What does this fold into?
Amino acid sequence: MVPPGRPAAPDCETLDLTNFPRPLRIALLGSRGIPAAYGGYETFYEELSWRLVERGHEVTVYCRSQYTPKKLKEHRGARLVVLPTLRTKHLDTPVHTLLSSLDTWRRRFDVALLVNGANAVFVPLLRLGRLPTALHVDGIEKQRSKWGALGRFVYSTSERLACRLPNRLVTDAEVIEAHYLELYDAASVMIPYGVDPVHEPAGEVLGRLGLSSRGYFLYVSRFERENNPHRVAEAYRSVPGDVPLVMVGDAPYADAFIESFRSGADERILFPGAIYGAGYRELQSHALAYVQATEVGGTHPALVEAMGFGNCLLVNGTPENSEVAGPEALYFDAHEPETLARQFRWVLEHPAEVEQRRRAMAERARAEYSWEAVTDRYETLFSELAAR
It folds into this structure.
C-alpha cells in the first residue's frame, strides 16, 4: 500500500497507449551483454531484446568486449554496441556503464533501461542526454557477502539514489517492491522474470557427463557464498545412493572459495563449469529435481527457469524464493545442510509425489511467469516513458 500523500507508480497495464510513439528506439545498458554467457541480467536482456525486435522496435544492447564475440554487431535482431572496460572486481561494471551512458549521447534513443542498482549513479548522465530512463534493481545487493565495507556502502547509497534519479524504478519481486516502499517510501513498477521453456532431447551434454534422464539432481548458480554451493556440496555427503549431483556454475574473482568446496568433494558431484544455451536447457529438461540455495536477491532467473521446465524444486526458504516457488516446492534452510539432505532423500524415496510436484511447478510457471507477458509490461513501460 502506498503511504498517503505519495503518488503510486503507474499501473502499466491501465495506461492508454493510443498516442504513444511506435516503434521505439530502446537502449539496454548495465549488463555484460548478449549473447547471454554469464547470468540473469544477460539472459533477461537476450529474452527481452529479440521479443521487442519482433514487435517492430529498434533495440540496442550495450556489451562488454571480453564477453562478446569479436566482430559481432547484431544478435537476434538487436544491435550490439561493444565497449571496453577495466577487468577488475570493483571497476568492471561502473567503467562500462559510464562509457555506455556517454555513448548514448551520440545516438538517437527514445528510452533506456539500466540494470543493477549500483548503476544508479549514472542515471543523471542518461537524463542529461534527454533520455527517459528506467532502472531495474535486483535483490538487496548490499547484503551480498562478496562485498566489503566499500561495496556495501556503494550499494546502500545506490538504493537511495535508485529511488530518486530514474524516471521509473523497476523491481522483479513483491518482496523487493515492499523493501523499497517501506524503507524509502519509494513506489516501483514490479515486473517479474520470465520463462518459456524449450525442452531439449537428451544429447551431447548428458552423454558427456554420463547422465541419464531423471537420473541426477541439478544446481545452477554463480559460485558465490550467498548462493551456498559449499553448503549444497556438504549436504550431499550424507545422501545415500549413486545419483549424481550436477553443480553448474562458476564465478570471477572467487577461485579460493570455489576450490574450498570442490577439493575433496563427494565423487558423485560433477562440476562441469558454466553452461548456457541448448546445453543448459538439456540439463533443465532432464533433471530429477532442482536445488535453489540462494539467500540474497529478488526473482532468481534459474529458479523461474527450473520451474518452467517442470522440475521438482528444493528451495532455500527465503521470502523471495518462496514467493516464486509457491507451496509445492520442498523447502530447506541453507545454513543447516541436514535440512537439505533430508529433502534429497525424500525425492529419492517418493517418485510418485515428485511427479505430482513437477506438474504443479510447470503449471505455476505457465500461469505466473511468461516472457511474452513480461515483454508486454516492459513495452508498455517504455511507451509511457517515451511519451514524456
Remarks:
- The two ends are 26 Å apart (CA to CA).
